[in-house]
Amino acid sequence: YLELKLSFSYHIESFILVTPLQCLNTCYCFFNYKYIANVFTCTNKKYSHLPNSLQHGTNWLILRNNKLQYLNATPSYINMLRYMDISYNEIKWISSDVLVAVNKSESLVWLNIAYNKLTILQSIFETLTLEKIWLKGNPLNCGCSMLWMIDWLNKSVVQDGRELNCTHGTEVGELIYQLDVVKMGCGALRKFVPLW
After folding, report:
1. Each residue of 140-153: pLDDT tens digit?
2. Which phi and psi angles does 148 have, rounded to 5°?
3. If you compute the radius of gyration of the chain from its CA atoms, what whole number of angstroms results?
4. Using CA atoms, how far apart are residues 81 and 104, in angstroms rounded to an integer?
5. pLDDT tier at 106, thresholds 50, 70, 90
6. Cβ neighbours for 106, distance < 8 A, ≥ 6 positions apart
7. pTM: predicted TM-score of the whole model, two decimal places
8. What is the H or E stretch that residue 2 is in?
9. How far is residue 90's CA from residue 24's CA, in Å, rounded to a whole number?
10. Residue 61 belongs to what H/E stretch?
11. Each residue of 60-74: pLDDT tens digit?
């Protein structure tokens, strides 16, 4: 009983549960005091798409370990999110419309899309006004169309930029930020050198 009471006391300082009626079935909604955030989390639920709506005031969305594959539609609540974690899914494509909406929102500062199935990142990623983004664990196809990433990965916004490697294309196994564009035959005259 004492152990349970101590555990409850510790957790109640971290969050306050929101009543079940304010959250989707099988999901959790709570307030995180550390980050002053209303959190909606649905992990390991086999969701194949983003929720159509969220409780008003939700600014953290956590959908790890689900079955998301394509992000084609822009949810209306994107403008209120500060943190979005859609890592460990099966995402193969994120539409430019979604990324444009992310950029316009000006509220989203952290985006975790690590451990998905993205083979290509559109160059619009470079323009996102994020403070932090995570990308590792995606089977990226390295080719000349991805060269914009080399400099971008050396920026501090990409939290795992030095860990991303090519899993497809001519440079399998190579770290992307160290790719030699001359060796790749992309017509560039220099090798990109890490800025760190």
Report:
1. 888 888 888 887 88
2. -55, -25
3. 19
4. 12
5. confident
6. 129
7. 0.81
8. helix 2-14
9. 22
10. strand 60-62
11. 999 999 999 999 888
